[in-house]
Amino acid sequence: MASQTEGNRTKPFRQRLVRLYYGRDTAAIRFQFMLMVIDIAIIGFFLAGPYLRDRPSYLIFDYMIAAWIALELIAQWSASWSTRRFLMRPMTWIDIFVLCTLLFPYWLYNFAFLRVARIWAVVQRPVFGLMLARLGLKERVDVFKAFVNLIVFLLLVSGFVYTFFFYREDPGTGFVDALYFTVATVTTTGFGDITLPGTFGKLTSIVTMIIGISLFVRLAQAIVRPNKVTFPCPKCGLRRHDVDAVHCKACGHVLNIPDDGAV
């Protein structure tokens, strides 16, 4: 009986979290926008980490961000429909690993480059799509997401290369060299002035080229293909339609696609 009473007390709190994280009312949009701004500030701290880690204040900000990410993980778990669904989200495990690198910065700093994956979380928030719709860019959501995926990949690989191949160099010069190598490899330019030594370096280059080219092709496809909107057909489930479509191309069902004014 006591556990049932406690569950009834926490139910309104959970419902409020669900509305704030996934709702589209004014309060939810403001909450999601605040989270997005905080995420961008955290990403800025992560990118500046190699230049700030020797300062006394670095650990203070490090543990403050760790506390925030821990609270956000607890809130997202509370707002999730089930624990299994929460654990199936890739960003859950990325945030857990990022939290570990923040709690143990001296032992896990070599994996700090994974922190830039939180850039991917920014474009997954519902408010990101709403902001693009308000700017008249609703049909270009796929282009923005493809571009962000490519940028995240470039930064992740650059961080990986810097950590395992250029760590002994100056943070500024070493990261620029790692980024230069990554872009030259992904674009298959292959200048050859910077190469990674050994078998491990060759395998890193191969994986970088294969995944990088795939992301470039995906971005190019998103840019050149006709503008489409995502609106599942109630009858056949086809999700992609022309902006001004009245009938579904697959089954002919009448569609009622909301315009920008209805967002």
UniProtKB/TrEMBL annotation:
The chain crosses the membrane at residues 33-52, 58-79, 91-109, 147-167, 203-224. GO terms for cellular component: membrane. Keywords: Membrane, Transmembrane, Transmembrane helix. The keyword tRNA-binding does not apply. The keyword Transmembrane applies. Pfam families: Ion_trans_2. It comes from the Bacteria. One of its GO terms (molecular function) is voltage-gated potassium channel activity. Residues 151-224 form the Potassium channel domain. InterPro entries: K_chnl_dom, K_chnl_volt-dep_EAG/ELK/ERG. This is Putative ionic voltage-gated channel protein. It comes from Agrobacterium albertimagni AOL15.
